[in-house]
Amino acid sequence: MILIEEVKRAQQELRKVLGVCDMAVAFTGAGLSTECGIPDFRSMDSAWRRHPPIPFKEFVADSEARALAWRRKFVMDDLTAGAQPGRGHRALAHLLEQGIIGAIVTQNIDGMHQAAGAQDERIIELHGNGGYASCLSCGARHELHEVRPRFEASGLAPECGCGGAVKSATISFGQSMPQEALRRARKVSLDCDLFLAIGSSLVVYPAATLPVLAKENGAALVIVNGEPTPLDASADMVLRGDIGAILEPFEGALKNK
Ligand code: APR
């Protein structure tokens, strides 16, 4: 594994591997969005440490837990309101548009990849999206601008017309993963010859099986992150540094591709 900690060198090496790959996949985590003011989950100063997500089992079992989950969600939504895509989102959207990256597999629920202009159909959201809600029984979609006033007026967790519990359309711990998203993510991980894991601590499964799947299938694995991850040793290259700084030059066209 080659470890590079100098930004300029990291940019050069990234440019090199992107220049020779047939199809890359970008696998992204919360580290991509911290520069947008959206906290990650495991950095020491993360706001999520003060408002930890409610596990799915508790959410389903207890109406008070559902109300607490909705209170926490709206606290975080207010904290991140107005967030704009960062340099990493813009760079990946550009590389996607150039066809250098074939898909973005994201663990993020913040919709920043879409906001940066990445085509929706080439973004695979493993952990759902926090921009709307859905009914756990019938699957009906519920808009947050309708859910929030009712919740704040009554303090009661929202319910669907069918009687089912309404939950933010994100995947909580203990909740089953979206099977179609996982199937698509596995497919692109097997099809790519370069797998870029960017801004993830790579400790949450099954998402963190994807870099391993790609690597075992012969792809080059490059990890871009500010801190070490458990998969660093099996990576071909680790670019250690600020994600925005490393990816910034890729917002523009890639020369001689
Ligand atoms: N530059 C480089 N690295 C950064 C930056 C930055 N600007 N900001 C944060 N990081 C790094 C952190 O050091 C950390 O290693 O990004 C990583 C983010 O890791 P996590 O907070 O664990 O986020 P993620 O890996 O996306 O979490 C996966 O866990 O809580 C669940 O469902 C949630 O999708 C989430 C999943």
Explain how this protein is built:
With about 260 residues, this protein is an alpha/beta fold. The chain has two domains: about 160 residues, 3-Layer(aba) Sandwich (Rossmann fold), CATH 3.40.50.1220; about 80 residues, 2-Layer Sandwich (SIR2/SIRT2 'Small Domain'), CATH 3.30.1600.10. About 35% of the residues lie in helices and about 20% in strands. It is elongated and about 55 Å long. Bound molecules: adenosine-5-diphosphoribose (APR). The site of adenosine-5-diphosphoribose has 21 residues, from helix 9.
Topology:
Elements: E1 2-4, H1 7-20, E2 24-28, H2 56-61, H3 63-80, H4 87-97, E3 101-106, H5 112-115, E4 123-125, E5 128-135, E6 141-142, H6 144-154, E7 166-170, H7 179-191, E8 194-198, H8 209-216, E9 220-225, E10 237-240, H9 243-247
Parallel strand pairs: 1-10, 2-3, 2-8, 3-4, 8-9, 9-10
Antiparallel strand pairs: 5-6, 5-7
This protein binds adenosine-5-diphosphoribose.
The site of adenosine-5-diphosphoribose has 21 residues, from helix 9.
